[in-house]
Design goal:
By secondary structure, the chain is of the alpha/beta class. It contains 10 helices and 19 strands. The protein binds iron/sulfur cluster.
Length: about 425
């Protein structure tokens, strides 16, 4: 097929910029699957360059897409090396796209260029809403700015229109996503636009909760904490991207902060809202990380008592500054794996303690699924979809997915809760 595929009737433009690949290997699997669809009667598969790891790009041919000037796409060119065990979730998502394409509503579809089809890739009562793309920061370990480019915010009317579209399809919780949500609006001339747009999104008819993901600790300001802890419909949930707690490691990562500053920030959030949820990710095994650095991280984790913690082992990403660091300061894979294991254990213990602290608390649970026998699966305000724990709701009345139910926490298991409606 020719590359000008965006104009051919059987071409598919598949956008997966926020698909939560857990690892490079899963990403490769998913991309190979997309390639395989090309050769299984689905027509050419086209995907945004942002979904293609740099080291796989030589296998794709970039083509400009009319109507989407900021994007370039790659076309799967060959069928070699197809996966034996494709990522199941991605297969389901892609099948949903190709089997039931839905036109974008007016105002969201580009006015010209190829017809853009769109379908919610997953059902359910929560959905991501992308508020911006790209990143102007330059963290030493991260390749995102090199392929997503500068930070670009979507305009509020576009977000509100998409929120209404999602709500009309049954979405009750919006998860605002971007590479850096605290920067939302800075390219539109308003550094505090998130504070304005959050209450507006929360007013969307049918939407019960709005949640923000990915806040840069360096950019969190008092006014934002205030809006996120006092606006009806906006959950007091702080997804703070700390990445480490040792000042020297953070400087080498070209990031802000240290243990004291991060502790103060968490305290500030909890002063505004004691029950606020706080989550963060951390990288261990960054080049040059010492025993003292690890002690700082351990101390921070035990002091901050976060609700959800992700621990990741450092690995070189092509095109990043950290990949060019001297081999002498890089740790071998076995040592990084050992540090990941050690801190994953610490993280589990901290999360379990924090969940146990919530016993007796009143929580608002968004029901996602009936489990039978008066039990329902859902998430309290401090639990984001997919990445955090969940809450099992015990109810003596029938509930439906999408119900927002007040309940009292009676038990915890790891980061998960059991609550009585
Ligand atoms: S880690 Fe986040 S803030 Fe840093 S460069 Fe990557 S996307 Fe930007």
């Amino acid at each position: 097929m020719e590359a000008g595929v965006s104009r051919t009737p059987d071409a598919r433009l598949i956008g997966l910029p926020d698909f939560p690949f857990q690892s490079r290997y899963e990403e490769i699997d998913g991309l190979r699957l997309i390639a395989s669809l090309t050769f299984e009667g689905y027509g050419p598969s086209i995907l945004p360059a942002t979904a293609i790891p740099r080291f796989l790009r030589p296998q794709f041919r970039p083509v400009p897409v009319v109507g989407l000037p900021r994007r370039r796409v790659g076309v799967a060119q060959r069928s070699r090396g197809l996966p034996s065990a494709p990522t199941r979730a991605l297969l389901e998502l892609l099948e949903a796209v190709v089997s039931d394409p839905t036109d974008l509503p007016d105002g969201l579809a580009p006015a010209s260029g190829p017809q853009v089809i769109r379908r919610r890739l997953a059902g359910g009562v929560t959905a991501p809403l992308k508020i911006a793309s790209g990143c102007d920061r330059r963290c030493a370990f991260c390749a995102i700015p090199s392929f997503r480019g500068a930070f670009v915010s979507r305009r509020p009317p576009e977000l509100l229109a998409e929120a209404q579209w999602l709500a009309a399809s049954g979405v009750r919780e919006l998860l605002l996503v971007s590479e850096n949500s605290t920067s939302y609006g800075k390219d539109l001339g308003d550094l505090r636009l998130l504070e304005t747009v959050l209450p507006e999104l929360a007013k969307t008819e049918g939407v019960a909760r709005v949640r923000v993901s990915y806040l840069q600790p360096a950019e969190v300001r008092p006014g934002l904490i205030d809006v996120m802890t006092s606006t009806p419909g906006v959950v007091p949930y702080f997804d703070l991207s700390f990445q480490h707690a040792s000042g020297p490691v953070l400087r080498r990562m070209r990031r802000f902060g240290d243990r004291e500053r991060f502790t103060r920030l968490v305290e500030q959030v909890r002063q505004a809202c004691p029950e606020a949820g706080v989550r963060s990710n951390f990288i261990v095994g960054f080049p040059g990380e010492t025993a003292d650095d690890l002690r700082e991280l351990e101390l921070f984790l035990s002091e901050a008592r976060l609700d959800a913690i992700g621990i990741f082992g450092y690995s070189d990403e092509d095109g990043t500054e950290a990949a060019t660091f001297a081999d002498e300061i890089k740790l071998d894979e076995a040592e990084i794996a050992r540090r990941v294991d050690e801190f994953a254990d610490i993280a589990e213990e901290v999360m379990a303690q924090r969940a146990a602290d919530r016993i007796g608390e009143t929580v608002e649970v968004l029901v996602e699924e009936a489990l039978g026998d008066g039990r329902y699966e859902g998430r309290a305000a401090h639990q984001a979809p997919d990445v955090d724990g969940s809450t099992t709701l015990l109810a003596d009345r029938p509930l439906a997915p999408g119900d927002l139910v007040t309940a009292r926490v009676v038990e915890s298991a790891g980061a998960d809760l059991v609550a009585q409606a």
